[in-house]
Automatic annotation (TrEMBL):
It comes from the Bacteria. Pfam families: Methyltransf_31. PANTHER family: NICOTIANAMINE SYNTHASE 3 (PTHR32266). This is rRNA methyltransferase. Residues 121-242 form the Methyltransferase domain. GO terms for molecular function: methyltransferase activity; nicotianamine synthase activity. The keyword S-adenosyl-L-methionine applies. InterPro entries: Methyltranfer_dom, Nicotian_synth, SAM-dependent_MTases_sf. It comes from Metabacillus litoralis.
Length: 264
């Protein structure tokens, strides 16, 4: 019981810190290192096997307080990851690139994103939730020569992201747009789609994409279940008439896992 209480206290502390740091974001790099350390500590916490058991015990209690804590942590940590990308983009503008553990963790997985459904130079890739530091489009375009379009709902993320692509992706076929999938001409031609894990409406968008995409499209859905659902929106059942899961890429040491879908 004590372990569970301590675990829940840790979660409350994380939430307080994420909340505080997200409120203090002022479009400068103030608080950058504080937030970087917090995100790294949180990444370690949610991939630490020792916390799995405490999480399972806590989950069995089905308390509404816990539910609120989980929902709050998911939302605030997602917001803070988006802010961290902004800090990283500001730093690049000032000529300073550094890599925190969290980003290394994300970037080391991009190679395996599509499992056996490889991206080639002829592929057309769409990333939903490209963020202010669009590392996924940069790495995919650089390694494969594919065309990549990233979309985001945040104006600042699009502007900062374009700046990053200009600096790090000269000559690569990457476009960032503030657009919804239904308003993008490109959607009907895409071969590969990636959903950022911290896009809350990702499963609703997946459902909507069924009628907007071609028959051969493959979708990589980043998600986190159980303990990892404290840092990611979790997986959901999909309409079996529309999509079928074809592969699951579980990565115990990474902050999120990946489910691959093709049309049913
Ligand atoms: C910061 S990135 C995080 C990327 C991280 N690598 C991941 O996999 O979650 C997430 C971005 O998704 C954007 N976003 C959230 N909801 C979205 C939506 N419905 N459509 C497009 N972008 C969205 C946010 O504005 C944010 O910039």
């Amino acid at each position: 019981m004590n372990t569970v209480i301590t675990f829940q206290e840790h979660l409350s502390e994380f939430l307080e810190k994420f909340d505080d740091l997200s409120r203090r974001y002022d479009h400068t790099i103030n608080n950058c290192s504080e937030l970087g350390s917090l995100i790294d500590a949180y990444s370690k916490f949610i991939t630490d096997d020792r916390n799995k058991e405490a999480w399972e015990q806590l989950e069995r209690q089905e308390s509404s307080d816990l539910n609120q804590l989980v929902v709050g942590l998911r939302k605030k940590s997602a917001l803070c990851v988006a802010i961290m990308e902004k800090y990283r983009a500001f730093k690049l503008q000032n000529g300073n690139v550094e890599m925190t553990d969290y980003f290394q963790n994300i970037e080391s997985c991009i190679e395996k994103e599509f499992g056996s459904f490889r991206v080639t130079s002829k592929s057309k890739v769409l990333l939903v939730g490209s963020g202010s530091f669009p590392m996924t489009p940069l790495l995919i375009a650089k390694r494969t020569g594919a065309e990549v379009v990233g979309i985001d709902i945040d104006d600042e993320a699009i502007n900062l992201g374009r700046n990053v692509v200009e600096r790090l992706g000269a000559g690569l076929n990457i476009r960032l747009e503030k657009a919804l999938v239904e308003n993008l001409n490109y959607t009907k031609d895409v071969t590969h789609i990636i959903f950022s894990s911290t896009v809350e409406s990702k499963y609703d968008i997946l459902d909507q994409l069924h009628k907007l995409t071609n028959e051969n499209v493959v979708v990589a859905m980043r998600y986190g279940d159980q303990l990892k659902s404290l840092f990611n929106y979790p997986s959901r059942d999909v309409d079996g008439q529309k999509w079928r899961q074809v592969e699951k890429i579980l990565r115990p040491d990474h902050v999120f896992d990946i489910a691959l879908y093709k049309k049913a």
